[in-house]
Amino acid sequence: MSEQLVIDLITIVSYTVNGSQILVPQRVEAEQQRGEASTSSLARPKAEGELVGGAEDFIAGIESAPEASRPLL
Question: How far apart are CA 3 and CA 9, in angstroms?
């Protein structure tokens, strides 16, 4: 019966942003269950990016974003 019981663990991290305290929850990944594929064998995308000063590059990138996403950006 307890084989079907799943317990999710959540951690909470506190940050101070512009004088306000925010709490950010994060789910702790569970141990691999029997019969599940190993996540380490899956290909993971390589993180790519660059740090730039100012918002000019972001603003210029809005024009190349999908039309439906532009109002949000």
Answer: 17
